[in-house]
Specification:
The model has no long low-confidence stretch (mean pLDDT 89). The chain has one domain (20-115). The chain has a four-stranded mixed beta sheet, with helices on both faces. It is α+β, with helices and mostly antiparallel strands and 118 residues long. It contains four helices and four strands; from the N terminus they run H-E-H-E-E-E-H-H. The protein is globular and about 40 Å long.
Length: 118
């Protein structure tokens, strides 16, 4: 989520969200230290964004699953219109698509598992 979108988040409607975050991402830093240059306007901490989506979607359950030694999945479920928020955190990973070693499945499989619900 860009800094601009975050600043105008009061206008956002509930929606299903899937986020796969490399904790060593230097392009979109997990800790919210993203530069305001390049038109993105900075960005808040990724967990702050996921908390926002979980609250907006009024999710009622949260589950944490250790996928691998490097990856933890956070599933927020039973939200408005059955919307879910899935947040994968990959340790030691940057701004690229993780593979089966990190996620168990391919990122493409996870994307399909998530969005095929909607």
């Amino acid at each position: 989520m860009s800094g601009y979108t975050w600043k105008h988040r009061s206008q956002i409607q509930p929606a299903p969200i899937l986020q796969i975050s490399g904790l060593n991402d230097e392009v979109v830093p997990y800790d919210g230290s993203m530069s305001r240059s390049g038109g993105w306007g900075g960005a808040p901490h990724q967990q702050t964004i996921m908390d926002f989506w979980s609250k907006l979607n009024k999710t009622r359950t949260a589950e944490v699953v250790q996928i691998s030694d490097r990856t933890t999945a956070h599933y927020y479920r039973k939200g408005t219109n059955d919307h879910e928020v899935w947040h994968y955190k990959v340790k030691g990973f940057g701004h690229r698509i993780p593979g089966t070693r990190e996620l168990g499945d391919t990122a493409f499989d996870i994307v399909w598992q998530f969005f095929s619900k909607y």
